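Database export, one record per block. Field names are fixed; values are copied verbatim from the stored entry.
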Amino acid sequence: MKLILILLYSLIVHYSFCQEINWAKTSDWKIYEIHDGNAFRYSMDTLSNFKSIPLNDDSIRQMLKNCSIWPKEKTSVWMGLYVATYSDEKKNIRKIDISVYGGFFWDENSKSYYEVEDLLKSNWADFWHDSASKFDR
């Protein structure tokens, strides 16, 4: 019985946290005015202390349409980041950390890296740069 409970728990945890995200059903995208290295440590509650700007959901969903999850063994190099949130299809708010230059991001809930397709990396970087520049106005 104990073994069955352990297996059941493992399956629930695996499928709850390791599922790939249905980007087409995301909404309520926001970028936050955060410019420091502590961004990875900020909880969802902490984000409410920062200014945010709503983003165009359709634009982001279009760029994420063919994004891919990175293999766990692939590493990343961060040179600056943007912090954003979105609502998933169950209306749970999730936080992501977006690389300024690399065309990739870290989804904190799934503990996974995602990468936009190569053809869109320049548009992806421009979108986030343009969005973040609105805080300066």
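Remark 1: Residues 3-18 have pLDDT under 50 and may be disordered.
Remark 2: Residues 21-136 form one domain.
End of record.
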